[in-house]
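User: Before I run my own analysis I want an independent prediction to cross-check against. Here's the chain; please return only the structure tokens and, at the end, one sentence I can use as a sanity check.
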Amino acid sequence: MNRRSALFFLLSLILFSFAIKDEGTQPAYYKCGEASKIDNSLFQVQSGKIYFSFHQSLKPADLKAKDYFTAYLVNASDSLFNVPRQDDSLIMIQEAINEQGEWTPIEHWISSGCGNSYFSPLKLEAGNYVMIPIKQYKGRYKTKIRLKLRKKDGTNFYSEPFNASIDKAQFQKETKNVEGILYHGPANYLDK
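Assistant: Structure tokens:
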């Protein structure tokens, strides 16, 4: 490695270290794939329901990172499931059960102030599903986690809980303002 490459590598590591948070809630981003017809070889179909199905050992093909697993948002109902997206991401965070037995955010949403960010809602037709890469946290605290998804009417849709482990420091809410597209303000925990 020549001197210039070594310097670039060192500067990259320094800059990357500032972007990584080692405690507190983590920023969320959940881009989903294209809708496909329900395939009962991927998950057990629960007729008449809209639900998440988790495959924690299956890593998304388009993500080489080992810290993600696959979830499916399945519409086995007979109606359209319409949810907003911001910059192609579902507006969704993860919550975990804390030591007091309460559901507490371990991620936060960064809102956008640009109207163009909201032009492509997910309109999941009946009999279809989408695949979503889910960030898989690791830590010493064993708990249950659920997904909290914002619906078009402003209410939230929750997944069934699944077993996981996190670092308890993730329960600390972000107290500083966060930066988004044309946005400077508090982190969003999808509270009403």
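Sanity check: Residues 4 and 45 are 55 Å apart (CA to CA).
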